[in-house]
Design goal:
This protein is an alpha/beta fold. The protein folds into 2 domains: 101 residues, Rossmann fold (3-Layer(aba) Sandwich), CATH 3.40.50; 100 residues, Rossmann fold (3-Layer(aba) Sandwich), CATH 3.40.50. The protein is built from 6 helices and 9 strands; from the N terminus they run βαβαβαβαβαββαββ. The longest helix is centred in the C-terminal third of the chain and has 25 residues. The protein is globular, with a radius of gyration of 16 Å. It starts with a strand and ends with a strand. Bound molecules: 5-O-phosphono-beta-D-ribofuranosylamine (GRF). The site of 5-O-phosphono-beta-D-ribofuranosylamine has 16 residues, from α1, β5 and α6.
């Protein structure tokens, strides 16, 4: 299965995917391209270091948003991928991409959806809200992307304990280490090996 990974930041989720493809934990999968909207995203450096095509396609470089959308879709299609993985990608996907790749785009979100998700809920903000609400358990979710924000069929979730005295940064790291970097690679392996089916907008694990 060929995948494209879309990133905006440090790329620790991308690194987990790269490592697990290389060590065979993720089977039958190749990362064809890593695309970021930020040219200084360290995720692009991680890709280059592993001989993976790395492209920067930034909305800022286009007069019109539709030109960015078109370029992003055409670039992804040029790599002939089967699955698009959003690993901390902070740009709203073009509608045409979500349509063309229906049930073939997954996203990692750093909470147990439907808690602490939706517009504006990403990165550290999620963990700040978790601490503000005082929940005892948080975690991460891999879901299929649909036209909404964090609203598509849920595929995998993993719970993580919130500890007394946690800061948002400490909690974010725990959620990454104990959940995100585990379930995103696992989801890719499951999809690559025919273990997932979408039935009535629910992700069914076979
Ligand atoms: C992670 O917190 C992930 O949950 C969220 O964006 C962040 C990406 O981090 N979607 P990284 O770029 O993978 O290190």
């Amino acid at each position: 299965m060929k995948i494209a990974v879309l990133v905006s930041g440090g790329g620790t989720n991308l690194q987990a995917i790269i490592d697990k493809v290389e060590n065979g934990t993720i089977r039958n999968t190749s990362i064809e391209v890593v695309i970021s909207n930020k040219k200084d995203a360290y995720a692009l450096t991680r890709a280059t270091k592993h001989g993976i095509a790395a492209e920067c396609i930034s909305p800022k470089e286009f007069e019109k948003r539709e030109d960015f959308n078109k370029t992003l879709v055409e670039t992804i299609k040029s790599y002939d991928v089967d699955l698009i993985v959003l690993a901390g990608y902070l740009v709203i996907l073009p509608e045409m991409l979500v349509k063309e790749y229906k049930d073939r785009i997954i996203n990692i979100h750093p909470s147990l959806i439907p808690s602490f998700c939706g517009p504006g809920m990403y990165g550290l903000k999620v963990h700040e809200e978790v601490l503000k609400r005082g929940v005892k358990v948080t975690g991460a979710t891999v879901h299929f992307v649909d036209a909404g924000v964090d609203s598509g069929p849920i595929l995998l979730q993993k719970a993580v304990e919130v500890k007394q005295g946690d800061t948002a940064e400490v909690l974010q790291k725990r959620v990454m280490e104990q959940a995100e970097w585990m379930i995103l690679p696992q989801a890719i392996d499951m999809i690559a090996n025919g273990k997932v089916e979408i039935i009535d907008s629910k992700a069914v694990i076979k």
